Amino acid sequence: MVAPIVIPDASKEPTAYVEALLATLGDRDPLEVYAATPARVRELCAGLDDAAWTEPMAPGEWSALQVVGHLFDVDVVYGFRWRLALTEDSPTYPGYDEKRWSELTRPAPRALLAAFAGLREANLALLAGLDGAQLRRDAIHAEQGREDLRRMIDKVAGHDLAHANQLERTVAAATARAT
User: The whole model's pTM is what?
Assistant: First the structure.
């Protein structure tokens, strides 16, 4: 079994949350991590049947469908935040309740994977074209404070790694129960 990556609760411990995401990323290139995630997610989920998609790793944990849905949601949220920071001077934006969002209705698994890959591709096109001055543009997160685009990108890449780890463990548990 893959060892879990432990990330503190973003709402309860925002500073520890950010530090954990940045530590998870380490010295990896954030755009390479960000670009590789959709293929990794698709690979991890390739063998899931309909029942396994909705099987959590353990009580209180997310299913594969919820993890992939969360990654999609994060791209919606950060795509908006990045665009806001690039077009306004030090805008503010709220946090959001990811646990409540995880309960929202999702498309079928294959459609969700395709939507995630498409949204990620659009966000990557935006990020790939940024210059140094744009990466220094900042915004104010209601819970985590002021952050520039470079930090936001690093956080999302660390977040991807943590949730790919979670997804790997979730898929392993769901498929082990099915056999």
Answer: 0.96
